[in-house]
């Protein structure tokens, strides 16, 4: 099973971008088992899905300009929009993006390895992701518009005309991709660290990937079985969640959230790993509390797996369980807060350079904190009764997922772009994009929090007139945000072709990836990597 | 030899046919015992319900398979046992936390 | 640095060009991790079973009576025996007893097939008697409907894994016959056997859940 085959005929030291494999051109990319190429394949696919999801969101915002619907009068279209927006953004973008693209690209390099433990399985993961995505999207063109929400709650998902079996089959296959990636990364980290790289000398991004991979391996199968059960109910008429046959719909929700809550930790842990890399580099100081961050990472993965029913407080679960889950939810905020304190403390007396990656990283801390605090509000039972299923929830999760994970992703893209492609982007454009995104994001989603407290329910195509002003403000915020996003993507894509050549270490980073050429050669390290005593010791490290 | 190349586990313990056969025998006996409890209700031991027997005997059978057939007893590296403990703990916690809802509604 | 001109290569390149990287322990860790994911896949079903059994205790006990205990126990022993033979086949490979290994591995596969045949006969019998969730015979009997829903889903998913396991074992058998699996390179068979043992363990728990109620 383990077969790190010879990368021949290898021209030693050739950039992974241009190395010649068995097949030329695109076929060479589609058959490559080089973790860096697979990482780029994931990046391209996930970026595509992000843009699709973003467009769907944009259409939703346009519809909401008017209480009676600015674009269409048929609520079924809105149901389709929010279902698709959720499915695409969550399953096809946010969950796979950091592990699949940046994890794949940088994990082996950051532990001083040549590739992952199972390179061919790695490529299989990507193909499963693509096949699953296509099948999930094919369900659009089936028996009816999707309308269950990305949550596929029973019993409605068992009855609706939408092609639920196809959609859940697609999600099942994408889930498999996630599990295999997790298996690959855990084995890689256990077995392929450079000699001398003990666990507590590993950089924090690999640590984050490690914890994430455990959640991927243990939690995703629960989603798998849940999707299989929906499939079985629709096709074979078993009655596991169907009340007419004795089934309990709440058990569907338990099983669904048993995965889907840990899934948000799959989303945020790698992002936190990125922040732990970016902040020390641009403060030129060692990370404050490396050990605390490691243990917090593990704690978040573990505790985060135990809080799922906080999505179910108003469904009729027992009071006792609601109390227990509320308590556990409060607890999981603690290690997250520890990390926020540690990142902030790292800045103290640092030599701070407000380069684009750093701006995104600092934004992360601000936006994630708001997201986290609103999460605590939602975790409070009494507040939850009022805020459940309102725009407050939507605001909360966009703050943590978008303001958190996606801003961290953008930080990483700006940080690691020169390494991945050997080119530098236009920094002025990056700053402008960031500013538009930051302003637009807050105008957009903070207004959502207010709308939620005002009582605006989520997933509604039409609303009471009193909500119109905030809805319009939020939509304007969305326009500004999208403008920033487009400028950012445009900037990076132009840089791919016309960017200035970047050196090996433009930021003065100290972790292993900055010791290899930009872009790296196929085999990553031309000389075996020498593990330093402290992964974040900036003494004597300078930008080149 | 790939094991020597791995630099670790140099001599993998070869388990004897006899050991495997004894384990198999134990598994069969336990299975029959479990079935007997279910089929024949022992009035002398009313607490020995089929459920209780299943709760005790099934994990023992599974443990025999895991430790002997799946080699866990002979692995020098504790990593497998630790990972197994993590998995089982998560499973038990999932069961428990769901239980406190369903049982107490 | 290139070896194309026959020049001296660095040791890293040497090990890379001439011998594929093999990591016995890494391979096993990967397999165990995959098995853990399978545990969680079935684990979700066991959670459901536990909850429904609490809700519908008497119906679940009654449903158990409709099962053929003899076939259930017999099938259990079939799988246990298959685990025994596949475990021994690894010892045989490690002791270079190729013919014995082939015999043992073949036996395992045959036992797996026997299990599936019996299972499908059971299913056919149940369906014939109207013992399936959407049948009119069970209409309105929620507890029994849920019992049989769980029965078909859990034994069905298990059956799919038996088939998958058999497929993998057949591939292993071919590799063994062709000499690709030897005492030095046995990890593929060991991993396949691990999968088979998991399939056995799942059935160990399914037996009392469905067959040995009261």
Describe the structure.
- The complex is a heterotrimer of chains A (544), B (105) and C (214).
- By secondary structure, chain A is mainly α.
- Chain A is built from 15 helices and 2 strands.
- The radius of gyration of chain A is 23 Å and the shape is globular.
- With 105 residues, chain B is an all-alpha fold.
- Chain B is built from 4 helices and no strands.
- In chain B, α2 packs antiparallel against α3.
- The longest helix of chain B has 24 residues, at 79-102.
- Chain C has one domain: Four Helix Bundle (Hemerythrin (Met), subunit A).
- In chain C, α5 (98-128) runs antiparallel to α6.
- Residues 1-19 of chain C have low confidence and may be disordered.
- Chains B and C meet through α1, α2, α3 and α4 of B and α2, α4 and α7 of C.
- Got a strand count of chain B? 0
* Poorly predicted parts of chain C: 1-19
Mean pLDDT of chain C, to the nearest integer, reads 89
Strand proportion of chain C: under 5%
Name the features.
heterotrimer, A: 544 residues, mainly alpha, two-stranded antiparallel ribbon, C: 214 residues, Four Helix Bundle (Hemerythrin (Met), subunit A), 78% helix, elongated
Task: Describe the SSE topology.
The complex is a heterotrimer of chains A (544), B (105) and C (214).
Chain A: H1 25-30, H2 35-63, H3 75-110, H4 119-138, H5 156-159, H6 164-191, H7 204-236, H8 249-283, H9 290-303, H10 319-347, H11 356-379, H12 381-387, H13 391-421, E1 423-424, H14 427-454, H15 468-498, E2 500-501
Antiparallel strand pairs in A: 1-2
Helix pairs in contact in A: 2-3, 2-4, 2-15, 3-4, 3-6, 3-7, 3-8, 3-13, 4-6, 6-7, 7-8, 7-9, 8-10, 8-11, 8-13, 9-10, 10-11, 11-13, 11-14, 13-14, 14-15
Chain B: H1 2-6, H2 17-39, H3 50-69, H4 79-102
Helix pairs in contact in B: 2-3
Chain C: H1 11-18, H2 24-55, H3 57-65, H4 69-94, H5 98-128, H6 142-177, H7 187-210
How would you briefly describe this protein structure?
The complex is a heterotrimer of chains A (544), B (105) and C (214). Chain B has 105 residues and is an all-alpha fold.
């Amino acid at each position: 099973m383990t077969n790190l085959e010879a990368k021949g005929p290898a021209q030693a030291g050739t950039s992974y971008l241009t190395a010649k494999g068995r097949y030329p051109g695109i076929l060479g990319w589609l058959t490559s088992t080089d973790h860096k190429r697979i990482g780029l394949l994931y990046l391209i696919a996930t970026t595509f899905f992000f843009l699709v999801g973003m467009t769907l969101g944009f259409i939703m915002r346009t519809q909401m300009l008017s209480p009676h619907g600015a674009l269409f009068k048929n609520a079924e279209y809105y149901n389709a929009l929010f279902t698709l927006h959720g499915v695409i953004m969550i399953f096809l973008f946010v969950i796979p993006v950091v592990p699949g693209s940046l994890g794949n690209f940088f994990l082996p390099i950051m532990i001083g390895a040549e590739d992952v433990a199972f390179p061919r399985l790695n490529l299989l993961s990507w193909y499963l992701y693509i096949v699953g995505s296509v099948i999930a999207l094919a369900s659009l063109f089936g028996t009816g518009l999707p309308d269950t929400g990305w949550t596929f709650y029973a019993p409605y998902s068992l009855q609706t005309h939408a092609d639920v079996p196809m959609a859940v089959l697609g999600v099942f296959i994408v889930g498999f991709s996630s599990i295999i990636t997790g298996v690959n990364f855990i084995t890689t980290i256990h077995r392929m660290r450079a000699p001398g790289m003990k666990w507590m000398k590993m950089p924090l991004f690999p640590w984050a990937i490690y914890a994430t991979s455990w959640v991927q391996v243990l939690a995703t199968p629960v989603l798998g079985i849940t999707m299989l059960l929906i499939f079985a109910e629709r096709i074979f008429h078993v009655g596991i969640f169907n009340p007419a046959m004795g089934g309990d719909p709440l058990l569907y929700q338990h099983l669904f959230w048993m995965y889907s809550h840990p899934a948000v930790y799959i989303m945020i842990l790698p992002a936190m790993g990125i922040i732990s890399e970016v902040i020390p580099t641009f403060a030129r100081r060692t990370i404050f509390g490396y050990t605390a961050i490691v243990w917090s990472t593990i704690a978040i993965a573990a505790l985060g797996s135990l809080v799922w029913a906080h999505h179910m407080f108003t469904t009729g679960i027992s009071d006792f369980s609601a109390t227990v889950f509320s308590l556990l939810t409060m607890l999981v905020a603690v290690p997250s807060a520890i990390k926020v304190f540690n990142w902030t403390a790292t800045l103290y007396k640092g030599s701070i350079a407000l380069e684009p990656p750093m701006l995104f990283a600092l934004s992360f801390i601000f936006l994630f904190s708001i997201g986290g605090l609103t999460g605590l509000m939602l975790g409070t039972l009494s507040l939850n009764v009022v805020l459940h299923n309102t725009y407050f929830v939507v605001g909360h999760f966009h703050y943590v997922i978008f303001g958190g994970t996606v801003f961290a992703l953008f930080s990483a893209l700006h940080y690691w772009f020169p390494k991945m492609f050997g080119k530098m982007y236009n920094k002025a454009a990056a700053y402008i994009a960031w500013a538009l995104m930051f302003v637009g994001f807050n105008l957009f989603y903070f207004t959502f929090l207010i709308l939620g407290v005002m009582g605006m329910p989520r997933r509604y195509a039409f609303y009471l007139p009193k909500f119109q002003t905030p809805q319009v403000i939020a939509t304007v915020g969305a326009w500004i945000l999208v403008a920033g996003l487009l400028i950012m993507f445009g900037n990076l894509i132009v840089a791919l072709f016309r960017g200035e050549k970047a050196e090996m270490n433009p930021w003065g980073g100290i972790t292993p990836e900055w010791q290899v050429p930009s872009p790296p050669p196929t085999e990553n390290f031309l000389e075996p990597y020498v593990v330093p005593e402290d992964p974040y010791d900036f003494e004597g490290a300078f930008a080149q | 030899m790939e094991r020597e190349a791995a630099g670790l586990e140099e001599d993998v313990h070869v388990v004897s046919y006899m050991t495997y056969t004894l384990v198999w025998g134990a598994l069969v006996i336990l299975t029959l015992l479990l079935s007997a409890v279910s089929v024949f209700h022992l009035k002398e031991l009313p607490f020995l319900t089929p459920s209780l027997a299943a709760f005790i005997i099934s994990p023992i059978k599974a443990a025999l398979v895991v430790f002997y057939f799946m080699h866990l007893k002979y692995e020098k590296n504790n990593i497998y046992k630790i990972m197994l403990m993590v998995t089982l703990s998560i499973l038990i916690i999932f069961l428990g936390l769901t239980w406190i809802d369903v049982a107490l509604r | 640095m290139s070896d194309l001109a026959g020049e001296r290569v660095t040791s890293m390149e040497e090990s890379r060009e001439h011998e594929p990287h093999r990591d016995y322990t890494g391979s096993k860790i990967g397999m165990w991790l995959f098995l853990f994911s399978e545990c969680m896949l079935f684990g979700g079903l066991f959670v459901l079973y536990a909850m429904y059994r609490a809700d519908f205790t008497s119906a679940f006990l009654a449903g158990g009576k409709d099962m053929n205990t003899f076939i259930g126990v017999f099938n259990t022993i079939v799988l246990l025996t298959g685990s025994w033979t596949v475990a021994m086949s690894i010892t045989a490979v490690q002791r270079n007893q190729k013919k014995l290994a082939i015999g043992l591995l073949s036996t395992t596969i045959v036992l797996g097939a026997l299990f599936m045949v019996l299972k499908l006969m059971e299913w056919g019998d149940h369906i014939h008697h109207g013992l399936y969730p959407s049948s009119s015979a069970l209409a309105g009997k929620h507890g029994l409907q849920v019992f049989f829903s769980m029965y078909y889903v859990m034994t069905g998913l298990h059956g799919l894994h038996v088939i998958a396991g058999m497929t993998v074992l057949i591939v292993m058998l071919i590799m063994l016959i062709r000499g690709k699996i030897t005492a030095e390179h046995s990890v593929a068979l060991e991993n396949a056997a691990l999968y088979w043992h998991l399939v056995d363990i799942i059935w160990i728990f399914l037996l009392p859940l469905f067959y040995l109620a009261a």
